[in-house]
Amino acid sequence: NAGVTQTPKFQVLKTGQSMTLQCAQDMNHNSMYWYRQDPGMGLRLIYYSASEGTTDKGEVPNGYNVSRLNKREFSLRLESAAPSQTSVYFCACRGIETDTQYFGPGTRLTVL
Amino acid sequence: AQSVAQPEDQVNVAEGNPLTVKCTYSVSGNPYLFWYVQYPNRGLQFLLKYITGDNLVKGSYGFEAEFNKSQTSFHLKKPSALVSDSALYFCAVRDKGGGGYNKLIFGAGTRLAVHP
After folding, report:
1. Per-residue pLDDT for A74 more than 60?
2. Euclidean distance between CA atoms B22 and A3, whole angstroms
3. Is B73 a residue whose pLDDT tops 70?
4. Residue B101 has what pLDDT?
5. By C-alpha distance, which of B61, B67, B72, B62 is closest to B49?
6. Closest CA relative to residue A76, chosen from B97, B99, A85
7. pLDDT greater at residue B62 or residue B43
8. CB contact (8 A) between residue A31 and residue B46
9. For residues A104 and A33, what is the distance between their CA atoms, to the nearest angstrom?
10. Which chain B residue has the Cα nearest residue A50?
11. So what's the pLDDT on residue B31?
12. Which of A4, A52, A1 minimizes the C-alpha distance to A30?
């Protein structure tokens, strides 16, 4: 089992460009999450999805959109990238029976 | 609102010595507390969690954490540090919303450096 996978691993964008970060999990978990990690600020929740077909805003949703394509996949889209969105992005999943979240390896995004 | 605080940005320990990484929390109701570790250029890995029961929780890689309700603390400990324990450690608390939307609130992280 791969667990949680994310693509791409690295990306450089210019201000105003758009892109989609992909996340997939093979753990058959219902809930999925997108976080961003910035130095000295820990991880902050961008969006989450309790189950297929549902999404909700987290702590820092502005400038992002998400799609829960199916139970396995949860994508994060930046419609018009800004330098403030330079960060490391992590996807995670969690099953109903457990409070433990499992994380992907991350995507390092730089917006110039 | 739920929150966690990690008062130390960095902890330095000599290999073989005991280590402690501190975490304090503020929650309404019973806390669900977690420790995660992040190695360089990797995602977060689950170490251990406290839900209920014994105040001393044992986790992966020889780590343990002590839940102290009166001090609202959940410090991470290891009796003998290894150089390979050097990493970024995050404390987190569950923020339970309706509909099973369990979210984690993370501390800012503590960088552990174990010196040979």
Report:
1. yes
2. 29
3. yes
4. 59
5. B67
6. A85
7. B62
8. no
9. 10
10. B101
11. 87
12. A52
